[in-house]
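Hey,

The postdoc asked me to send both predictions to you directly instead of through the lab channel. I've kept everything plain text so nothing gets mangled by the mail client. Protein one:
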Amino acid sequence: MSELKVETDPAEVGLDADRLERIGRHFRSYVDDGKLPGWLITVNRHGRRAYVAAHGSRDLEAGRPVETDTLWRIYSMTKPITSVAAMMLYEEGGFELTDPVSRFIPSFGDVRVFDGGSDLKAVTVPAAEPVRIWHLLTHTSGLTYGFHRSHPVDAMYRAAGFEWAWPPGTDLAQACDRWAGLPLLFQPGAEWNYSVSTDVLGRVVEVVSGQSLDEFFASRIFGPLGMTDTTFWTGDAERLAALYTSGPDGRPARLDTLGGQALTPPTLLGGGGGLLSTAADYDRFTQMLLDRPDSPAGELDGSRLLGSRTVRYMGRNHLPGNLDLKTFGRPLYAETPFVGVGFGLGFAVTIDPVAGEVISSEGELTWGGAASTVFWIDPSEELTVSFFTQLLPSSSFPIRSQLRQLVYQALVD
């Protein structure tokens, strides 16, 4: 088990201890006001953990407090892990970013694109070019999610059984074939839309490596990084935080049907959102990605997963013309700002901190999960931050923008 504790005096790494305490004071009010069940925050600078704070309950009904070893559903914070797995195989020559996905998943060889009509009677046209690995990594594939509820194809995903779960007994290979048989929202590469792209990428990882996704993660990422608690399911119900949504009265309402899925082995290994993790484990993953003069990105404690240039390439904005998500992306109701934020290979990339009107740094890498978890990596400040709670959806409160405000005001060097 990775240990979660403060490793340095904040002043040693340019942080003001009193100002750091503002973070905890602010977010305690979310629990005390009955908006969040509980949370855990970590702040690391120059590779050392300078701040850890927790408050509230991991399980309100059972009266269990948040602990440093609490297990959290990280949902889409799984995506950067799958993207790292894919880029490890890229470095080995397993594929090129321009390769058609159909080279590894044949059902993607004849995809069609929505061109009108409704979810019940769609008009489609052939794809002008193949869906490529690069499209999966950048969410420009034309795939979607059933829970978006903003396009007829989203409804087709729901009708096929894909919203917050999947049809019983479906495995990843079968799901990919089902998604390939549904229309794309747009021609590959034409727009950005958050989607099951990373789940399809997880299947590519399986085919190229010859391992199941959980086996690849365990042997190639979690083992080398010492991420001993990150997994697709757990038998430890007491350590697992309960899952909540905002009830009619604004207070957390328990979601046991959805939350309980984490307690049994899944048939579908979701590289887009299936993992559980702890704050300590995810800290190790972000530290591996942090690019510092004394520790180039891609390595941690002697275990190198990726070359430093590969990580830097992943952290570039890959949207055409250096556009941001607001301009190139489909309009979605999301807590993460789309203005001034582009997208790299597996995570969002800040390209204009001023445009987003939230203090941050150019080149910051970030993403969050559906249950209001979030992380970011700021290479220019050698800073990593993570926030864990279990409230679905993540747009319930402006947690992510407020966390940035409070973290950056504590930097005083």
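Protein two:
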Amino acid sequence: MRTKEKEKDNLEKQQAERQKVIEHLEKDVEELRRLSGAAEADLELERIRQQVAELRRDFYTHLGPWQRAQIARHQQRPYTLDYVHYLFTDFMELHGDRGFADDKAIVAGLAKYHGRPVAVVGHQKGRDMKQRLARNFGQPKPEGYRKALRVMQLAAKFGRPVLTFVDTQGAYPGMDAEERGQGEAIARNLREMARLPVPVIVTVTGEGGSGGALAIAVGDKINILENSFYSVISPEGCASIIWRDAAKAETAAAAMKITAKDLKDLGIVDEIVPEPDGGAHADHEAAARLLDEVLDRQLMALSNESVRELLAARYEKFRKMGQFFDLAGT
């Protein structure tokens, strides 16, 4: 047990040292950029820039599940409105659930994607405290899910594909949300999304937490960004339940198989979307371009399928999840 703890400590120290080296080199690049002008300085600048890119690429390639979870929560990662800015045109946000209020933790509206009318739904967090409070830290209440469903059903009425962006630690667990039917709102979304007669493409862009994520994640294609994660509970929550110690979140993250690669191997997601060097938070525009290639290809393929084929494949897709067979004795 002590050997494993020592190995983990050594790995963390190595990662911390790599990060310091990268930060030091980045400072050198900035200094050289400021002083650049001479041919020798430009050559040195390019050499160091390449070295930084290589170290950063190596650093992000060997991250563990817990480290990737921290990147998925980075406050500078692109959120739904960032993807709307880079990927869509003529976006018109729709507000309210026509029953109680407008939940700002969910962004929903109509837009055009490469000239094609679509509906966009996604979680929206905030970058500073004022925005986070206004967006309720990206944790939707029942009215948020009802707004999302209203927009998705409107899209289905007019034959518009639905594109959703998932990034939430979970549905809001407060008493007021429970009083207004949090569980019922999530369950209704699951049922109705399963039978929407239009293509539905889901992308986990940050953290996909529990039913709060799944309520807008029933689709024909499920994508996940390279450093995102998707799970029934957060690593901290799992550690608190299993070991009664949230400090064991790193151990829980490894055991829960929450990374993009694990989810792909388990058949939970269809495609892993690569991120630019340094993560999506380092370059929003590059992250959007990489996602754009995947969404465009998938939407073209799904558009050629009939409604009957779409619904049958979607149903089978989710029915198969969680089915495992032990063939050791055969």
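Summary for protein two, as requested: The chain has two domains: 2-62, 71-320.

Thanks,
C.
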